[in-house]
């Protein structure tokens, strides 16, 4: 999906193409299929996952399969299956086969009773989406198995990820990807959030680099198993203004969508990622200005 393809590319540069297997339940773009090992894998098919792990002598499992915030609210039963049953399949297989496991969490793992500006790594987490509930469950289950059975479980809470070429899949932060496509094509973006809705965001290359650096961090450096990572926080109006420095004609109309606005209003405004910076040297490369330049000038 939006994250797996780019991470596989980064890992293959470091560990060799044939040592990184990309999987999905749907056909990837042809250039991805040709770029290295690709297999069909359904996170709900425990036996097939086990066969893949054993036949390929897998050591690390990166688990990105999940229904995101908005699409999860539209299909709670499926979100529960994929995000919770699927996670348990992965956790059990990791334990059974001594895998090291990376599972992402999200700003969506917090709720309206969490501190919002900034939100620390450790605080009240009462998310109001099935996506957030499933991600808190993932954090807690992974840490339980780490402390009880020594599972090398690692988790990063991602901000809204601004992808390059792959469209996002049903999230609340997706407007921040679409606005660039619209600015470069029609010159008009209809935003489903209010202009002043501030959310933590990150360019996808920072997200991939954070994930690889965290996976490579020596265990002795990790005071936590789940970390916030941050890069920037912006509102729709702020990113529109930054885009207008390059495309002055950009027009944005605001038609708040009640489901996604309610979700966004329950999420943190900014991440405190000081533990990640201290423990394993996290540092973002892209702020809002750099994001807009790379999206409009270098990777339109
Ligand atoms: C979503 N893009 O909007 C995802 C992400 C931080 C948000 O988890 O649901």
Automatic annotation (TrEMBL):
It catalyses: L-threonine + NAD(+) = (2S)-2-amino-3-oxobutanoate + NADH + H(+). Residues 1-230 form the NAD-dependent epimerase/dehydratase domain. Pathway: Amino-acid degradation; L-threonine degradation via oxydo-reductase pathway; glycine from L-threonine: step 1/2. Gene3D superfamilies: NAD(P)-binding Rossmann-like Domain. The lineage of its organism: Eukaryota, Metazoa, Chordata, Craniata, Vertebrata. This is L-threonine 3-dehydrogenase, mitochondrial. Belongs to the NAD(P)-dependent epimerase/dehydratase family. It holds the Pfam family Epimerase. GO terms for molecular function: L-threonine 3-dehydrogenase activity. PANTHER family: L-THREONINE 3-DEHYDROGENASE (PTHR42687), L-THREONINE 3-DEHYDROGENASE, MITOCHONDRIAL-LIKE (PTHR42687:SF5). InterPro entries: Epimerase_deHydtase, NAD(P)-bd_dom_sf, NAD(P)_epim/dehydratase. GO terms for biological process: L-threonine catabolic process. Its EC number is 1.1.1.103.
């Amino acid at each position: 999906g939006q994250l797996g393809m780019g991470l596989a590319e980064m890992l293959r540069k470091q560990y060799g193409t044939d040592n990184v297997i990309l999987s999905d339940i749907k056909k990837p773009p042809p250039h991805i299929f040709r770029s290295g090992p690709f297999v069909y894998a359904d996170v709900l098919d425990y036996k097939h996952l086990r066969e893949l792990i054993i036949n390929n002598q897998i050591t690390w499992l990166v688990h990105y399969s999940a229904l995101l915030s908005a699409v999860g609210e539209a299909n709670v039963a499926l979100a529960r299956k994929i995000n919770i049953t699927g996670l348990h399949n992965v956790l059990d297989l990791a334990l059974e086969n001594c895998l090291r496991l990376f599972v992402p969490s999200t700003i969506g793992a917090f709720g309206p009773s969490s501190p919002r500006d900034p939100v620390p790594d450790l605080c009240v987490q009462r998310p109001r989406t099935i996506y957030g509930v499933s991600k808190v469950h993932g954090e807690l289950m992974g840490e339980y198995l780490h402390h009880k059975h020594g599972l090398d479980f690692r988790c990063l809470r991602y901000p809204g990820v601004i992808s390059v070429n792959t469209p996002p899949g049903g999230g609340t932060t997706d407007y921040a990807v679409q606005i660039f496509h619209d600015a470069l094509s029609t010159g008009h973006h209809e935003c489903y959030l209010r202009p002043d809705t501030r959310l933590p965001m990150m360019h996808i290359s920072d997200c991939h680099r954070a994930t690889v650096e965290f996976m490579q961090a020596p265990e002795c450096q990790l005071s936590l198993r789940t970390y916030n990572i941050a890069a920037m926080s912006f509102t729709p109006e702020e990113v529109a203004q930054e885009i207008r420095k390059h495309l002055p004609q950009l027009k944005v109309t605001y038609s708040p969508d009640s489901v996604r606005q309610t979700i966004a209003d329950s999420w943190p405004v900014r991440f405190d990622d000081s533990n990640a910076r201290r423990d394993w040297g996290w540092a973002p490369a892209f702020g809002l200005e750099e994001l807009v330049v790379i999206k409009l000038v270098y990777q339109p």
